[in-house]
Amino acid sequence: MNTEETLPIDPPCASTKCAVEATLSIIGGKWKGVILYRLLYGKKRFNELRRDMPKITHRMLTLQLRELESDGLVKRTVYAEVPPKVEYELTELGSTIKPIITELYNWGKTYL
């Protein structure tokens, strides 16, 4: 692969605003990519996400969802009913990450 043809002309991460660093600061970590992957195909309730990711703790899932919501990638909807119903889904901005998450999945499948 010739990197001059595929990478931007800017020296990678030479400036104070590195696009790769910005992306990884938002989706980096052990769980955010997995959460985004689980939300690619529609809304999920909190316990559905917990079942899909049995190794994540309740607290960590809550924190990661809050961060993704704060960064504008995930939307949290609370329904006024008893017991309360809460759903998570990708925002319009969050949906733009689908090709990246899909490629991470494909790369991981090949690696495994």
Automatic annotation (TrEMBL):
InterPro entries: HTH_HxlR, WH-like_DNA-bd_sf, WH_DNA-bd_sf
HTH hxlR-type domain ranges (all copies): 18-112
KW Transcription (keyword) present: yes
A GO term for molecular function: DNA binding
PROSITE patterns: HTH_HXLR
Keywords, ordered alphabetically: DNA-binding, Transcription, Transcription regulation
Pfam families, A to Z: HxlR
Record bears the keyword Transport: no
Protein name stated in the entry: HTH hxlR-type domain-containing protein
